[in-house]
Amino acid sequence: MHANGLLCSGGLLGDDAAAMTMMAMVAVLLFLVVRTIFAPTTLLQQPHPRPSPLSSTPASTTPPPRNPRIPKPRRAAMVCNGPCSPAVDDESRRDRISNLPDDLLLRILVLVPLVEVVRTSVLSRRWVHVWTRLPMLEFADDEASPVASFANLVAGVIRGYATDVDMPDVLISVRGCFQYTLDEAVRIAASAFLVAQRATTTTTRTGVFEKLTKLYIFGVQFTDGGDGINNAIIRQCPCHQDLELHRVEGIKMLFLLSESLLRLRLYKVMDLERLLVTAKNLREMEVTKCFVMMAIERTWIWLTLPKLEKLHWEDCCPDEIQRWSLPSQIWNLTIVELSRGYLQYCGGGQSHFTRILQAFDRTDILRLEIPIAPVSIYHHLRH
Amino acid sequence: MAAPESGDGNNGAARMVTLISSDNTRFEVEAAAASLSQTLQLTILDGGGGGGDGIPLPNVDSATLSKVLEYCIKHAPAAANGGAPNATAVDRAELERFDNEFVNIDQSVLYSLIMAAHNLEIEGLQSLVAKKVADMIKGKSPMEIRRTLGFPDPTPEEQAEMNAHMLEYGWAYE
């Protein structure tokens, strides 16, 4: 029922202090937790503090005059975007937007950058609490430049968000537009924790992301070699179904043990040397450009995936493949040879991609993609 | 376009339906245009709205309804094509121009349109008017928003409240 995903993008985890590493790890996780599925329709279904006038009040009959007194003429009132009709009288210029019910106001406010939405709370009494039910929270530090502290902004919004509404999608995007001090990073992580707790239901076990089903981490640099995320997936996410790591650095070993995981996508997990996946319900897996090609230690992959149906492999084959439990036949197997340019970039060498084929006896659909360079280029590269 | 009942004379095969506004004005439009409204679509599919019956819309006055129908008539052909495959860039540019022009209206009309688009569940129009209001808010300070939207001057008490609130929300400002 609750699909909570957490989306985190940006790199922030650059300190080697162990404590920081753990904390930063946590931050990343939290980001993910925050995301409850947001369908536009939920906007209209959210519990409402007061009955929506939609059904009862005819749209076009006079709305309740909130401000009965005639507004005084205003200087410079024509900041108006659109050319208001030439004969604007005060009546036509009077605020009507405030009379809209909350759900319609929110539909407008999701289109406005978060910081500015929060600031609408000082417009009038009517607006004080409107923002606290936003159906989506998207924090991006590159758009939040006007605030003094991004961490304070995140914390403030999370603190102020209505307690009777399910926390919606939360996206915290850190692109490093601010120079984060250790303190700032820790506070962002702490806020994310708070969000995670809210997305985490009644149980009091801390650090367990009960409802988290999707975790998407983009562009993050880990400083703990992967321990934090391994630990989180194994112990803290009992309902986790989708995991995607996209352009992350610093994970050398990825050990994923999960009964609930259905889909796994590893895309440019740049420093990967060892991958162990034991997921008895996993159906789909993709590995693209992850494994280190000229690793000093032997690279390996150990798989226990009895229900695997679909595999997309676009990577060099590790030195060792251990199939503890793989179906002898899978439905869809796609193997893509790395481009010559990429192989060169990684220091030359071969991807040995065909070895992956040997892990399976039969497949319903086999797709092999082998880029063929023009002969001239091929010769050029050889000499 | 959204001509009151008498102005008809369309010999084409297009099926027409009649909509009746809250102040009892009758509008005859092509079923395809009216069907942009999710609310009306089912009724129309069931064969309602034809002949002398008409579909009463007690929530929408005639001024607003004629504006809504102007939108529907303009957008119906594109919607019938299932969005865009056949639409040329020119068609799309024309629709865009129309949309921009369409929301150049004063706030009371905009308000009525928002409510009508919501009640009639016309997805495209809802997005269009929401975006219009969002554009009126974006990039402005609260003071500028107050001016743009035409807020009445706050009472001294309200002003004091807002000042206190602003202090409390220091994290959202510089």
From TrEMBL, chain A:
The keyword Transmembrane appears for this protein: yes
InterPro entries referenced in this protein's UniProt entry, alphabetically: F-box-like_dom_sf, F-box_dom, F-box_SCFL_complex_component
Gene3D superfamilies registered for this protein in UniProt: 1.20.1280.50
Span of domain F-box: 94-127
Domain of life of the organism encoding this protein: Eukaryota
Pfam name, any one: F-box
Ranges that cross the membrane: 17-38
Listed SUPFAM superfamilies: F-box domain, RNI-like
Alphabetic keyword roster: Membrane, Transmembrane, Transmembrane helix
Region annotation (Disordered) ranges: 45-76
Keyword Membrane among record annotations: yes
PANTHER family linked to this entry: F-BOX DOMAIN-CONTAINING PROTEIN, OS11G0201299 PROTEIN
Name the UniProt record assigns to this protein: F-box domain-containing protein
Organism field: Eleusine coracana subsp. coracana
Lineage: Eukaryota, Viridiplantae, Streptophyta, Embryophyta, Tracheophyta
Gene that this polypeptide is encoded by: gb21160
UniProtKB/TrEMBL annotation, chain B:
Protein origin, superkingdom: Eukaryota
Alphabetical UniProt keywords: Ubl conjugation pathway
TM spans (from-to): none
Glycosyltransferase as UniProt keyword: no
GO BP annotations, alphabetical order: jasmonic acid mediated signaling pathway; protein ubiquitination; ubiquitin-dependent protein catabolic process
Similarity section: Belongs to the SKP1 family.
Name of this protein: SKP1-like protein
Organism (species): Eleusine coracana subsp. coracana
Gene name, Swiss-Prot/TrEMBL: ga14711
